[in-house]
Amino acid sequence: MTSIFSSTGRGLRSMRRRDALKGLVGAAACAPFIGHMRPTQAAAPDLQTIEKGYLTCAIAGDLPMTGVKDGQFIGTDVEIVGAIAERLGLKMKPALMEWAATIEAIRSGRADVMFGNMGWSKPRSEVMAITDPIYYVTRFLVQKPGKNIDSVEALKGRTMGTVTGFTPIPDMRRIPGLTELKLYDTSDAVVRDVVAGRLDTAVLDGPVLDYQIARNPAWGLTQVAMKVNPEFPVLTGRNHAVLGVNQSKCELFQALNQGIAWAWRNGINKKALEKYGLTNPAYVTPVEKPPRLGVDRDEANKIIGPMQSCRADFAAVFAN
To answer: What span, in angstroms and rounded, lies between the C-alpha atoms of 109 and 255?
Structure first.
């Protein structure tokens, strides 16, 4: 199986992504981060991580959010988390895997944090500690021009695909009249079937498709924003892009979460997105009514749920 989501952005390749990156994962150097260091920065805290001094990151390796290229760990999410990790005295270490394996890597303790346009969902909040958003995402349908599929109603009689483990799947299973819902192991396989006409449309990571479609015009694909339907809130609504941490790692969770607030204050999120061509203001425009309210955050954005008792203060590290 060839990969169309290569870190080089060249489209179809003659080797699998895991083979192309073999030997780089676990040893990749960090790209220069959009940090905000200060001369008198407080001493880095002694955080418990899998490997002392390193932050092991479970990723799927889909640019522009995450990837490894020329021995460097790169991407929008990598830039944001990397700036925070730098403040915490941690070096980034990628752990590349299929997307469906990333949550289990966190739950089993094989990785410290997972990210890559990861959307918030209630089931995920029950098994992981989930941070505040690093940016916001809108749901799109990828398709051939002329399909004109832009709503739940327009999916009647159509075939649709996505990747196993993606957050809108429960909503997708309820679409009335959908001919078939196909689940795949990788985004590569989904896009390949849309290009070949074996799928009418698919739901994937919007930023990934924005990035790849612009670099591969021969695919003949476009993305169409879905019309909001309150009966399908995850599939059609806007969501948070977040980080996931093992629920036993209270201090790491709080350090990353407080670092995210610092990143927003200093414009690091916006700069990272723009660096990879994601300039749509929707990425940094808050969701009007976050789906997590009453689940793991309250109306004041205070933590509730499984992580409510988690307390740690890293104000000195993120003082400006």
So the answer is: 18
Tell me the per-residue pLDDT of 81-114, one tens digit each, with 9 for 90 and over: 999 999 999 999 999 999 889 999 999 999 999 9
pLDDT at 167: 83
What is the reported pTM? 0.77
User: Hey, where are the domains in the chain?
Assistant: 22-136+240-307, 139-236
In this structure, are residues 130 and 303 in contact, taking their beta carbons and an 8 Å threshold? no
Domains 22-136+240-307 and 139-236 share a fold: yes
DSSP 236-297: HS-EEEEEEE-TT-HHHHHHHHHHHHHHHHTTHHHHHHHHTT---GGGGSPPSS-TTBTTTB
Q: Strand 159-163 to strand 180-184: parallel, antiparallel, or no bridges (unpaired)?
A: parallel
Residues facing 159 on adjacent strands: 180
Distance of alpha carbon 254 from its chain centroid, rounded? 19
Return the CATH fold of 22-136+240-307: D-Maltodextrin-Binding Protein; domain 2 (3.40.190)
β-sheet bridge partners, residue 66: none
Separation between Cα atoms, residue 170 and residue 58, nearest integer Å: 24
CATH number of 139-236: 3.40.190.10
Pairing mode, strands 239-245 and 129-130: antiparallel
pLDDT tier for residue 30 given thresholds of 50, 70 and 90: low
User: What's the pLDDT tens digit per position in 268-306?
Assistant: 999 999 999 888 888 898 988 888 999 999 999 999 999
Does an H or E element contain 123, and which?
A: helix 122-127
